[in-house]
Amino acid sequence: MKKIVIPVVIVVFGVCAFFGFKAASKILASRQTPELQSTSPVENPTINQKNFIFIHVNDLTLEKPELISVWAGFVNDTTPPQFMFLPLFPTYNAEIHERINKNFSLNADKKVNQRFINQLQSSFDFQISGYVLTDDVGVGYSNLWISGVEAPVASIAATTDTEKHTLLLTGQTSWQQFCQLVATGTANNYFSAINWGLLLPDHFSTSLDFESLTLLTDQIVHASSPVGCEVLSNE
């Protein structure tokens, strides 16, 4: 298979500070209250923004994997591109947490059901351009390629606030490490380390085409000025 320079979490990679903040403000509001937002984020027609979600489950080889976490990635397709990452699940809002968890499932081809996507879009009031799905094995490899430190992942779905905090903090740390690579112009160290033979077909799935992902990665690696990358989380 042709080597593709995109992270497990990347695509994991899109997020923008510029106008991702508009969508992010809606998401943050939704995470604090069970009430759904009635107004849509203000959109700037001159900006090409895409919104991705990064889904982590415990084991994609199981018939019914458990949902562990979901992060949103907002990508502002400017020159250079801008990224912003934000946690959606687990959430301390018990009603939204249960609603998201209840609607999650995969079909026989390990594809995420549309009901789950619709639930996220209605709960947080933003449109999803695509998703990346991986499991503990994939996340473990991704963390290795980001940090150089091997640390196998064995996740348990969070039910208490303490367990949610632990998962959110772990995800926050990983995304901050990724953003550090992006901001310092060394993200290619991560991309070039990815071994797709270890991920496919059992530990990675996406609704996105690899051509689009490769293009986005090239924009990051070959940017003439620093790429903006921010993690909007304060665990």
Characterization of this structure:
39% of the residues lie in helices and 17% in strands. A 6-stranded mixed sheet has the order 5-4-1-2-3-6, with helices on both faces. A hairpin with a 5-residue loop joins strand 2 and strand 3. Helix 2 packs antiparallel against helix 3 (114-124) and helix 5 crosses helix 6 (187-193). The model is unreliable at 1-22 and 32-46 (pLDDT under 50). The chain has 235 residues and is α/β, with parallel strands linked by helices. The longest helix has 23 residues, at 161-183. It starts with 19 loop residues before the first helix and ends with a strand.
**What is the molecular shape?**
globular
Mean pLDDT over the full residue set: 83
SSE-based structural type? alpha/beta
Give the proportion of residues in helices: 25-40%
Largest sheet: 6 strands, mixed
Could you tell me how far the N terminus lies from the C terminus, measured between alpha carbons in angstroms? 39 Å
Gyration radius, in Å: 16 Å
This entry's quaternary arrangement is single chain
Q: Please write the string of helix (H) and strand (E) elements.
A: HEEEHHEHHHHEHE
How many runs of DSSP E, i.e. beta strands?
6
Beta-strand residue fraction? 15-25%
SS field, number of helical segments: 8
What is the strand arrangement across the widest sheet? Answer: 5-4-1-2-3-6
**Low-confidence spans: pLDDT under 50, at least 5 residues?**
1-22, 32-46
